[in-house]
């Protein structure tokens, strides 16, 4: 077995392990750390696929920013930290569902031939993404930035209106 296959196996195993640990953890912060393990493992798989740009974005955006936002959201909301998760038959059904989904995916992509449509993405993929993003897709890029700005302003307005509502109750 080659080194790439061993690395892929280990990264896949750690991604699955992080997901399972997240589902079985009883504390919310432990769930977040398990999710970070899954995100970093997926970034490693992207590196194996010669998609370094996507791997760096995965680490910066998901493992960094999204995780920090989730942690702040957890810390700033009221939740019962001593909530006990009951283990019952749902876990067995979930395991069977995951196994069935994995089998469907395996048999669905087992005989798939994608070599005819594949292009050489291993050289200068970040440069090619930048050229496409700022030449062919500049209008959707700018529209997306305006949409994110409107969403940010809307979130601020909603947060301010919630603060005013809390102060008037007595």
From TrEMBL:
GO terms for molecular function: NADH dehydrogenase (ubiquinone) activity; oxidoreductase activity; quinone binding. NCBIfam families: PRK06638.2-3 (NF005168). This is NADH-quinone oxidoreductase subunit J. Its EC number is 7.1.1.-. The lineage of its organism: Bacteria, Bacillati, Bacillota, Bacilli, Bacillales. Its main location: membrane. Keywords: Cell membrane, Membrane, NAD, Oxidoreductase, Quinone, Transmembrane, Transmembrane helix. The chain crosses the membrane at residues 6-25, 32-49, 55-77, 89-109, 137-159. InterPro entries: NADH_UbQ/plastoQ_OxRdtase_su6 (IPR001457), Nuo/plastoQ_OxRdtase_6_NuoJ (IPR042106). It catalyses: a quinone + NADH + 5 H(+)(in) = a quinol + NAD(+) + 4 H(+)(out). Gene3D superfamilies: NADH-ubiquinone/plastoquinone oxidoreductase chain 6, subunit NuoJ. It comes from Gottfriedia endophytica. It is a multi-pass membrane protein.
